[in-house]
Amino acid sequence: MLTKRQRAATAGLLAAVAFAVTGCSSDSGGGSDGDKIEGAGSQENSSASPSASASAEKNAPTFAFPADIKVTVENDSTGDAAKDAVLRDVAHSARTRLEAFAKGDARTANMNRYFAASALTYWTERVASVKKDGLTVSGDYRFYGFEVTDIENGKTAAVRYCEDQSKGYSKEIKTQKVLHTNPSDQDYILYTLQASKDSAGDWQVQRQSWKKGDASCVQG
């Protein structure tokens, strides 16, 4: 039987994967729910064994998900090389975030590669908290609607994208019980973020915010 603490954590776990557990700020840089950064398909089915997210991509990261997690990324080319590079790495960051919750570890090589500053600090704390509550993730997750809304000097960018969590669930680590919920518009989340290019040429998420149930993301 779930404790009171576990029930509270369960209610907010998917929101945590989407940037916060219930009652926490939605902006890892200090904003509030619904804040947006001004200005601001291919598919991958991941299994338990590591797989390259884009086999033709030089120095592409690999991701290892449990067999009960499926990841779909819809990220078409824009025809602009600079924007495509930003969106490629932001898509990697979306996978990275989910992988961290699945592993219960926010200090993976991928996290250190695609997150930095307040965003990395925030996720380190949230992943640890969810794991402490005895929970992880399960189900299908889809990322789509990727768009660069601004690039400044080729070094910073504002980006938005959507996530569909309607088939994603929390799961008890100890019992492996999947805690199913009824789908709703709140399962569709709009993310806005600021990314910066590091010395290695990777775009890292520095600051982020989100809005659940945003009309531009709701489907079905």
Protein model, in words:
The protein is of the alpha+beta class and 220 residues long. It contains four helices and eight strands. It has helices at residues 4-17, 81-103, 109-114, 117-132; strands spanning 51-52, 62-63, 69-73, 135-152, 156-172, 178-179, 188-197, 203-212. Strands 3, 4, 5, 6, 7 and 8 form a six-stranded mixed β-sheet that branches. A two-stranded antiparallel sheet has the order 1-2.
The shape is globular
What oligomeric state do the depicted chains represent?
A: single chain
Please, what is the average pLDDT? 82
Number of strands: 8
Residue fraction in strands: 25-35%
Fold blueprint:
Blueprint: H1 4-17, E1 51-52, E2 62-63, E3 69-73, H2 81-103, H3 109-114, H4 117-132, E4 135-152, E5 156-172, E6 178-179, E7 188-197, E8 203-212
Parallel strand pairs: 3-4
Antiparallel strand pairs: 1-2, 4-5, 5-6, 5-7, 7-8
Task: List the keywords.
220 residues; six-stranded mixed sheet; 4 helices; 8 strands; globular
